[in-house]
Amino acid sequence: MKQCNCCKESTLDYIIDAQDNIVCDECGIKDYCFCDECGEYVKTESCEVIEDRWDVSVVCDKCSLPIEVTKILNSLSLIPLDSVGCYIDTKSWIVYPCKGNKEIDLDNGVHLDDCTEEWLSEMSTSDLLILAHKL
Ligand SMILES: [Zn+2]
Ligand SMILES: [Zn+2]
Q1: Ligand nearest the Cα atom of residue 6
Q2: 88 C-alpha to ligand 2 centroid (Å)
Q3: Pairing state of beta strands 78-81 and 86-89?
Q4: CB of 95 closer than 8 Å to CB of 111
Q5: How far is the CA of 78 from the centre of ligand 2 (A)?
Q6: Closest Cα to residue 106, out of 128, 87, 91?
Q7: Confidence band, pLDDT 50/70/90 cuts, at residue 52
Q8: Closest-lying ligand to the alpha carbon of 18?
Q9: What's phi and psi for 4, nearest 5 deg?
Q10: What mean pLDDT do residues 23-41 have?
Q11: How many beta carbons lie within 10 A of that of residue 42, not counting itself?
Q12: How far apart, in whole angstroms, are the C-alpha atoms of residue 111 and residue 95?
């Protein structure tokens, strides 16, 4: 027997949520959703139902953020410019810096026209060639 963290009743049938709480079946059905992304039981209030062209999925608030970012990334045509640690979107010519571990900083994009000459001069020949091919 385990004690349910929600209703404090003893229970045989329980789930373990994302925070390692024991939750009885009854409370689970009432208050929890199963996140399709991380496979954890998460409180319904921090779950979101996401509908896209293919299916409907339930996603917790921890997982929904990366999904949004992925959606944005999929709509861009990004190519890496390794010599300056940036990505450029060849549809809009916006340059995005990287935030360390190759994560793209989508909030701080700058149009190629607004990049400084100094920045351009730091770019390697091979990266410049990539750009030249796309232009
Ligand atoms: Zn309970
Ligand atoms: Zn999740």
Answers
A1: 1
A2: 30
A3: antiparallel
A4: yes
A5: 27
A6: 87
A7: confident
A8: 2
A9: -70, 130
A10: 95
A11: 24
A12: 6
| CB 35 within 8 Å of CB 50 | no
From the CA of 65, the nearest ligand is 2
Q: Where are the strands (E) in the chain, listed by range?
A: 2-3, 10-11, 14-16, 22-24, 32-34, 41-43, 47-51, 56-60, 78-81, 86-89, 94-97, 110-111
For the stretch 55-100, pLDDT in tens is 889 999 888 878 778 888 888 888 889 999 999 999 999 999 988 7
Give the DSSP per-residue string, 94-127: EEEEB-SSS-B-GGG-EEGGGS-HHHHHTS-HHH
pTM of the complete model = 0.55
Give me the residue label for tokens 């509908």. Answer: 51
